[in-house]
Each structure stands twice: as C-alpha cells, then as structure tokens.
Amino acid sequence: MDTKEVNSASTPLIISDGCCVHFGNIPALESVNFSINKGKKVAVVGPNGGGKSTLFNVLAGLIPLTEGSLTIEGKSPSEVKGKVSYVPQKDLINWNFPLSVKQVVEMGLTTRNSFALFSRNKVNEKIKKALEDVGLLEKINKSIKNLSGGQLQRVLIARALAQDSEILLLDEAFSAVDIGAQEDIMQLIDNINLDGKTILIATHDVNNLEEKFDEVLCLNKHCCAYGDPAEVLTPEVIEEMYGSHNSLLNNKAHFNNEGSSND
C-alpha cells in the first residue's frame, strides 16, 4: 500500500461536528459528533425516535441540519448525493403496487442525473449485475408481491448497488425477516464491504455486534458512544440509550461473559 492509500484510509470519510436537527421545536438530533473512515462497517443503534432514520436522511441529503455540520469527503451531503445510496425501512414502501423486481432496481437509476447518459443496454447490464450480486438474478421478471421478506430486502439492496455509490445506508435491514434471512443479508453486506464500500446499518439489536461490525454509533438523539463495539457497548451506554431494560443489559452482560471466557 503506498502513502496515498494509507492517507486515504486514515482520513475520515464522514465527519459529524455538532450535528443538530429539529422538527419545529422538537429535537431529533442534538450535537452529534463522530467520524467514520472509508471502508468501515458501522452499526447505528438506538431506540425508536432516537434519531437513526433522521441521521440517514441527513447523510442522504434529504433533510437539512439546524446547527453544526456533517460532511462527506469535506462536502455537504447535498453536494455528493451520487456517493450515497439509501435503503429505507421496508414498511415505508408500497409493496402492493404491481412492480417487477427489475422495475424496483431500475428505480435506483432513474433517480440519478446520470441516467440519461446510460443506453438501455447499459441500464440492463447494471440491473442484472446488481441482482446477480444479491443472488436474485433468476427473479428479475417476478412480481415483488411474490417475494419473501428477505428477498424484498435484497431487492432494495440491489437497487442501491445499481447506483455504484461509495456509501450504503441500510435502515433496519434485519427487521421483519427471519433469522436465516438475517444471516444471508449479513453475509451479503460483508461481501459488499469487501468491495471497499462504507456501510452504515441502523438496528435495534445490540447483541453480537462485535462479531459483525467494525464500529458502533450509539444514538439517543445525542451520541451516547462511538467506536469499537467491544469497548463502547457497556451497560452504562446501553442504559443511556434504552433506559433500564434489564433484558437488554442481561443479554449484553451474558455475551460479554462468554466472550471473556473465550479469551
């Protein structure tokens, strides 16, 4: 690795400095500070209403900040929209609309300014490649109404991959799918991460994050902690995010005890 590559890897890709978002008088994010290096796989955890989706909307350039700054490679999200792909929560999409898998993936391309530069053959190639990457090429002409929850989530990821973005935001990627589908999606995310993409995944589950993610961002409107999951997911931080939920704390303590016994 040459000096240029080393400097690139150590320079933060995303920097949040006092990031604040208010909806009227209601704070959604308050003075959030963190920095994420390129190629990291980051879990964004916190309760409902803790600001996870709000943060993703800011990163995607969909809503403005009230105060502070958030930059991607030194620029505002609105200036670098082509670098970010956002997969929203599945329940925000009308899955009863009669669309094929191919049409859903193509939506990711039709929202980009560069779509007019692509030939129809180029568009079809991008769609097929994205579906191949998520293991759904054989479903390309199927109706989305006939897919399982895990397959629907993979279609959304394919739509994001077709955009060739550097940063992938997945909001509740593991919700409404069974354990087997969750494992398949996590393996898919690992493979995408190996291609050098930076991935942020919003999730409620604080268990086993050490095995799955490089870093964790703990949000409850403010940043409760950020860093290596093994170091920052303390009972105190979990209580700061979720309150005194004994099941969460006990699960985490149990995992830590198992981990320490394996050292």
Unreliable spans: 1-8, 246-263
| The named CATH superfamily | P-loop containing nucleotide triphosphate hydrolases
The count of helical stretches stands at 10
What is the number of strand segments? 9
* Range of helix content: 25-40%
Overall 3D shape: globular
Number of domains: 1
SSE-based structural type: alpha/beta
Write the layout of secondary structure elements.
Elements: H1 3-10, E1 12-23, E2 26-37, E3 41-45, H2 52-59, E4 67-72, E5 84-87, H3 101-110, H4 120-133, H5 149-161, E6 167-171, H6 179-194, E7 198-203, H7 209-212, E8 215-220, E9 222-227, H8 229-232, H9 235-242, H10 246-262
Parallel strand pairs: 3-7, 3-8, 5-6, 6-7
Antiparallel strand pairs: 1-2, 1-4, 8-9
Helix pairs in contact: 3-4, 3-5, 4-5, 5-6, 9-10
Structure notes:
This protein has helices at residues 3-10, 52-59, 101-110, 120-133, 149-161, 179-194, 209-212, 229-232, 235-242, 246-262, and strands at residues 12-23, 26-37, 41-45, 67-72, 84-87, 167-171, 198-203, 215-220, 222-227. The protein contains 10 helices and 9 strands. It has one domain (3-262): P-loop containing nucleotide triphosphate hydrolases (Rossmann fold, 3-Layer(aba) Sandwich), CATH 3.40.50.300. The protein has a 6-stranded mixed sheet with strand order 5-6-7-3-8-9, sandwiched between helices. The chain is of the alpha/beta class. The two termini are 31 Å apart.
